[in-house]
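dumping the sequnces here before i forget
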Amino acid sequence: MKPRVFAAFVAPSLLMMLIFIAAPLVSVFGQSFYVTQPVYETVEVESCTPGFPTANCVTETKSQPVRDEDGRIETRTLFVGLESYRNLLQFDRVGEYLSSGNWASILNVDFWAALRFTVMFTLITLPIVIVLGLAIALAVNNAVRSIRGPVIFMSLLPFIITPVIGALSIRWLFIGDGILTAALEEVLNRDIAMFAQGWTIELMMYFYRVWHVAPFAFVIFYAGLQTVNQDTLESAIVDGANRWQRLRFVVIPHLGPLITFVALIHLMDAYRVFEEIVGFSSQSHVISLQWLTYDFLQPDDAGNRAISRASASAMLTMVGIVILLIAPVRRAWREHKGER
Amino acid sequence: MTARTMRQPLSLRLASGAFLGFWCLLAIFPIAWIAVMSIKSPVDAFAGNFGDVLFGPTTRGNGQGLSVLELLIGGAVVIALARWAFSGLPRHVRRLTPAGWIAIGWLVAGLGYLAVFGLVVFGILPPVLGALDAIAGPLGQPVIGATFEHYYAVWVENAFWRNFVNSLVVTAGVVTISLFVGTLAGYALARSPSNLAFWLLIAALIFRALPHSVLVAGYLPVFINSSDWLAPIFGDAAPTLYGQPYAVIAVLVAINQPFTIWMLRSFFQNIPTELDEAARVDGCTHFQAFRQVIMPVMWPGVITTGLFSFLLAYNDFLVTSLLLDAQNQTMVPAIASYFNRETTTTDQVEAIAAAVSITAPLFVLVMVFQRQIVSGLTAGAVKG
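..and the predicted 3d for all of it:
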C-alpha cells in the first residue's frame, strides 16, 4: 500500500484522535501551570442606617469580583508554575509526617490516599482475577458440552453490565440491613455496618471488580484452552505426569501470552478505577486517582471548577500509565522488528 | 487411550461442577436480585430475609400481587414470545427482506417486535388477566407480591424516557461514526507493515490506557468557552459545546477509536490479502477493493466491533456526567440523581427500577449476540 493511500485511509481516524485525544493532553499539560481566577477589587462601601438627627453611616472596604458591562465576572489567568502540583502533593506536610514518624497521617492528604487505594486496588485484584478466570475456564472445559453455552451466557452478564450499575447492585445487597449484611450478621452473630468504615467498602469494591472482570479472563483463557496441543498432553501422561503437573507444565505455559494479555488489560483498566467510587458513594472513606480529577472538575458550590488542579492531578495520573506501559511497548517493538 | 486416561475421578468432576454452579450463582445473583427488588414495595425490597424479598408479603398486603393464574398465563405468553423471537422471527426476516437489505430488515423487525411485545405484555395482558382473576376464585388471589409502580414512577413521572432518548441518540451516533472511521483505519493498518503503522498502533494503545478524566479535563474549559473562540467562524450563532450531545458523540468516538481500530485490524488480518490482490488485478483502486470486495466479507467483524462501541457509549458515566447538562443527560449519569438525593426508601427502589431498566437492553444484547461478543473478546487476544 502506497504511503499516500495509507494516509488517506487513516486520516479520519487520526484526525479524531489528534483533535480529541492528543490536543486535550497538550492543553491539560499547559493548564496545569495556570490558574484562572476572578479579578477582585477593593471598594469602599458606605452603608447608612436611618437615625436621628443624622443617619449613621459606616464606611468599610470590601473586596468583590469585578464585573464587565454584561455583568459577568471578569477572570484573569495567571502563570503559577508548579503551584498546583505543590497544592496536590503537599510535600511540606508529608515531610513533617515523615520526620515525626507519623507515617499513616500521609493518607490525610487526598492525593496520597488516592494513590494508595489505586495501587492497592490494582495489585490486589490482578492475581484474583487471573486465578478465578483460569479456574472457571478449566471448570467449563471440564463440563458437559451442552451446559457450556448457558454458563458462558451467565458469565457474560457481570462483564457486560454498566459498571456504575454493577457496583450499585452489589451496594444494594449490603446497604443498611440488606440481604447479605443480614445473612452475615446471622452467621457471625454480631452487628455489621458495611458502609461505616473504609476497609469494608474497599472489600466490596474488590469483590465487585473481580466479579466484573473475571468473565473476561475466563473467556480469553477458555479460548486458549481449546488450542492446547493434545499430543504434548498425551506424552506428558506417558511420562507419568499427574494432573497438577500437566496443568503446571503444559497448560499454563501454553496460556502464558494470554495471561500476559489479560494482566496488561486489567492493569490498564484497574488503574482507572472510578465507577466503584460513584457506585458505592465511598468518597468520604476511599478515593481513587481518577476520582480525584473528576472531583476537581465538578463545579463547587460557587459554580467554579478547579481546572488547574484537575489538570495537575491528571498529569500525575499519567505518570503511572507511562510507567505501566514502558515494558509492553518495548516488547512489542522488539517483536515488530523481528517480524519484518 | 485418550478417553480412558483423560477420564477424571468422580470427586474431581463433582468439585469442578460444584465450583461452576457456585460461579454461575455468583454471576447472576446481584443482577437477578435487583430485578426482584425492583417490583416490591420498599419494606419488602430491603427486608432482611430472602423469603420476604422474594414473596413480598407487604406488597401483597397492599393488594398488589400476581395470582397463580396470572403467573401461569403471563409466564407462558412471555416465554412463547421470547421463543418466537429466536425461531419464527429470523425465518420471517429472511423470507421478507430483499437481498442486500438484511441489516435494515433486522432493524425494522427488532423495532416491530419490541412494539408488539410491549403492546401484548403491558397493554393486553393486564386487563385480560384482571378480568380472569375476578372470576377465578382462589386461583385469582395474589400469591406473590409484585408492583410495577416504581417503573411507572421512573419512566412516566420522572420522565426517564427523555434520558433513554438521549442515550439512544448518543449511542447511535457513536456506533455509526466509530465504525465508519474505524474500518478505514483498521483496514489500512492491517495491510501495512510499515513503521508508521506500528507507531500509530502503539499510540492507539497508549491512548486506550488514558484515564478518561484526563481527557475531560482538557475538554471542559474549551467546551464551556466555545462560544467565545468559535465566534470568529460562526459569528453570533457560535454554539456552546458544553451540554451538546453531538460534542459528546465526537468525544466518545475519539476515546473509542484506539480500541475500535485494534479490534477491526485483527478482524481484517483474518481476511486473506489474496482477496485484495485479486480485486486490484481486476482494476479496482484500493478504495474500491475495500468497499466492494473486503467489506462484504467483514460483516461479522463490523457487528462485533459495533457491539463493543455500543457498550462503551451506553455504559459511560464519566464523560457524559461531566459534559452534558441536566436536560441532555443520558440514562447512566441520570441515575446518580436518585441516590445522591436525600433519599427515602421509595427513592431507593425507584433507583433500582431505573437500574434494571438500564440493564434490560444489555441482557437482550448478550442473549442475541453472545457468539459475537465472545469472538470480539478473543479477537485481539489470540493474535497477542
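Chain B has two domains: 28-153, 160-383.
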